[in-house]
Records
---
Amino acid sequence: MAAPSTSDPHRPGATGPILLAAGLVLAAVLVFWPGIATYDSVVQYAQPLSGRYDDWHPPVMARLWSLTLRLISGAGPLLALQMAGYGLGLGLIAGRMRRLGRPRAALAVMLIGLWPPFLGWQAVVLKDAQMLGAMLAAVGVVGWWRLRALRVPGWAWVLVAVLLGYATMIIGGLYLIATAKGRRQRVVPIAGDVSVA
């Protein structure tokens, strides 16, 4: 079966939902700036400020935070990052659905993303919101091609691997490796990477 044409002039464009998602992300970042900080957020923020890291919070997130602190202090840059992943994933899925002639499905995707329990938690600067943003962006990238039965290009798989790698490190994939032998080891962030010492 041949793949459907990508240049059908009668199909509605994907640009609308993608631009809408970008606008909603920008609005959410402005409304929630610099992000909602919980106790965990504050404790983790202290790590890049002090330069002393532990493995209670994801070291990769603490390292990323230490890099963003060179540009802007506070949680704002991480809020923007997790909202960007959230919006990218929703926008790509909704855009593809619209392009497939399914405007109600596209609208449903956007409305689910705007549902206050989801959007509100995405404004909290935590590892869970970072993971969700990265994973939803990865799903959106793959869905952009696969929902149309098209092959995902190599560069997109690299992007998906980076996003899923970050999500895995954020949620504790390295902790499983570090404790696999039945004894706790120390996880140390170095030069933008994480290694087990």
---
Amino acid sequence: MKTRDLAYYMSCNYPYELIRDPEQGGYFATHPDLDGCAAQGETAEEAMAALDAARELWMETRLEDGLPVSEPAVGQSSGRVSLRMPSAVHAQLIKKANKQGVGLDLLLNAILSEYVGGLSARMRLEGILQQLTAVVAEVRNGARLTSTSARLSPSRPPGPPTNLRPDSASAPPLWADRTAPAGTRAA
């Protein structure tokens, strides 16, 4: 990485993250591209002003100590990645993809998508499930449905989400071993 001067780095447009603390109040601001560069303030504006000052001190210290300062990440990702893995893992993934009747690329995309975004989607679905369960409980207890409540069959309460694929609400995730009996793990 080419070392430049403080004026150059200060002129760069670094993205920031601003997080509101609902429990204690105030805001916490960071630059994701500058590990450890952070500040806080009572308002968003104060947190951002403090982050600007912290960024200058952070960069100045790094440059004085001869440490690298990253430039902001720019551009779009290509969507291509070269991945090395043990041949045994590769063989297992190919076997699982073949069992599912999909290509290795699709299997890996499904696994990575679940890891990156599926957990937050699953948490949202679980929140919706809790709300629906509360509505069902109200209906069963004789409460009136409001205009925003869904009419649900009391004989069939909703169950937990088993996967996030829209094509089949009851199918296991793409990477799950569909040949294993329920309640067991495939070898």
---
Amino acid sequence: MNEHRIFFTACFLFLTLLLLSIFSPSAFCKQKYTTDDFSADDYYLAGVIDEARSQYELAIKEYNQALALDSKLVDAYVSRGRCYGKLKNYKKAIADLARAIKMKPDSYNAYIERGNIYHAMRSYEHAIADFTKAIDIDPESSKAYTLRGYSHYFEGHFNLAIADEDKAIELNPKDNKAYQYRGYVYNKKGEYNQAVDDETAAINLVPYAGSAYAYKARAEAYYELARYDEAWDDVHKFQSFGIIADRDFLEKLKTDSGREK
């Protein structure tokens, strides 16, 4: 079952029920429902809605119910694994995703989600292996290249990281994360003008809080280019989104710019 289709179906059903309760409450309320009326897909859709609301513990309960009714519902294992990951219960997350992969070896989503879990665990080699498998399954996936490039960045494989982000951007020129992560690499390589260009591209694609860390990376690049006023502007921007500036970086910026803020 396609997760995107399920999500939009869940939203549609939720809105339909809401409208029925508003415009025909008496007719709606006369119908009695019990849990016996719910199918595995019903519980799964409820879990998708809870997950979309960041109610991960509730979503896990719904996925548990779905799997109790249909133990072969691969998407429920993938989604429950993702929720466990959000709660930092990585052991259970990996177990669910491994089971999903065993049941469906060509599950793109399972490899993507397990790669994300491995990345969060700082097991970057395992993450790279899973993202590579996702690419094998769907070679046109910009997301898989973006994520693999990010893991390569943390492993210090800067040229491989740039190659992956280049490919992600080729496949999807609006992939803001690919620009953002490639900018990180250029910062590490000391190629600060390229870093500014990439972080600016990321910010233009997804402005405001969605690019908080892109502002942070661009501030660091501006500092290295001695463009201190622009660095300060970006510091104020990412701080307004709740991101804390590195103390050492702020002290250097204050000293070299002759400003306190």
